Amino acid sequence: MKLAPHLHRIGNDIVAAYLVVTDDGVTVIDAGLPGHWKDLVRELDGLGLTPADVKGVVLTHGDSDHIGFAERLRRDHGVPVYVHEADAERARTGEKPKVASGPMKLGPTLGFFAYALRKRAMPTTYVSEVVEVHDGDVLDLPGSPVIVGMPGHSPGSIAVHVPLVEAVFVGDALTTRHVLTGHQGMQPAPFTDDPDEASTSLDRLAGLSASWVLPGHGAPWQGAPADVAAAVRSGAA
């Protein structure tokens, strides 16, 4: 789905990934679930492109519902997969602490897991090789994505700022649709390692120039990143 010039989304409000499309190729932000591969190929085909036009995958963190088809792109098409050094092991092995899921409602929770099963979430395909990135890096990829450290949801959670498309991709630093309750609107994401640190990290978005804030779960949000922290904290309250 085209959101704006050069900016596309695949998946839906349950799990989403994004494409930055330029004359130099495509940068994929997050890789959803393995079954989103067909969505990726379909979206690229509609643009007259193929997976060979993807120049890199940037993961906002290493959780299984964000790394989906990354290994397939890496293995079959030689596409490098970028992840913060603090989440590199998580992306390669799935090793992570157990955290409380928080509130849930039966319908949305079952819907989330049913969708994940349809998109072949099990077994998880981890990423054999990753390129480690750090806060402040500007990647040599289409759109020149900028890495913004956002620890909290995981130690290596990042936002990805792409000025070309006036967007900041936030992964699970926040959500606009809680996958376990169905609650809509800006709010903290579930399954967060350190909620206090995640809340503090939101302040790092304030200085970014963008008109889109794009989470891994929930509807795209149009507004200024400077307003994000207050909106999420209000949603938490």
From TrEMBL:
In this entry, which stretches build a coiled coil? none
Q: Which residues belong to any copy of the Metallo-beta-lactamase domain?
A: 14-217
Which Gene3D superfamilies does UniProt cross-reference here?
Ribonuclease Z/Hydroxyacylglutathione hydrolase-like
Protein name, UniProt field? MBL fold metallo-hydrolase
Q: Which organism is it from?
A: Microbacterium yannicii
